[in-house]
Amino acid sequence: MQSAAYLSAAKLPVLSNTCMLLFSLVCRAAPAADAGRVIAIEMGDYRFQPDTIELRAGVPVRLELTNTDGFTPHNLTLRDAAGKLDLDIDIAAGSSHTIDLVAPVSGTYTFYCNKKLPFMKSHRDRGMEGSLLVVPEKPQ
C-alpha cells in the first residue's frame, strides 16, 4: 500500500480536496494571541497533557480541565504572587471543570497537582507539573 505522501492529487477522490481545505483552515486557526482561545488540559496518570502552555499576557483564555483517571482526584495549582496568579482547582476523578484565565504578567510559571496520599510521594513529586509561558502582549 502506498503512503498518502506518494499519492498524487489526481488519484485522490474529490473528498480529498475538501479534506485539504479543512486541513489548511485548521492549521491557520486563531493564533495564540486571540481572545477566546480554549485550551484543553487532561490530567491523569500523574501528568498534565499538554504539560506546556503558551499564551499572551492580558489575553483571556478558557482552560477546560479534565481528570481522565477513574479513581484518583487531581488538582491544578498555579500560584505566583509576582505573576498575579492564584489558582487552586480540585477536579474529581472522571470529572471536568472550566475556568477563564487572564495572566497579566509575562514570565514562566509552574503549575502542578498538589494532591498527596499519606506515606506516598505527592503527585507533583511523581512528575505531575507543567509550565505556563506567558509572553508579552502584542504591541497595538
Would you kindly provide a written description of the structure presented here, covering whatever features stand out?
The chain has 140 residues and is mainly beta. The protein has a single domain (37-135), classed as Cupredoxins -  blue copper proteins (Immunoglobulin-like, Sandwich), CATH 2.60.40.420. It is built from 1 helix and 9 strands, in the order αβββββββββ. Strands 2-1-4-7 form a 4-stranded mixed sheet, with no helix packed on it. The chain has a 3-stranded mixed sheet with strand order 3-9-8, with no helix packed on it. The longest helix is centred in the first third of the chain and has 14 residues, at 14-27. The radius of gyration is 19 Å and the shape is globular.
When the domains are counted, the total is 1
Name of the top-level CATH class: Mainly Beta
Radius of gyration: 19 Å
Q: H/E element string?
A: HEEEEEEEEE
List the helices and strands and how they pair.
Layout: H1 14-27, E1 37-44, E2 47-49, E3 52-56, E4 61-67, E5 74-80, E6 85-91, E7 96-101, E8 107-112, E9 129-135
Parallel strand pairs: 1-4, 3-9
Antiparallel strand pairs: 1-2, 4-7, 5-6, 8-9
At a glance:
The chain is mainly beta.
What key attributes describe this structure?
single chain; 140 residues; mainly beta; Immunoglobulin-like; 9 strands; globular
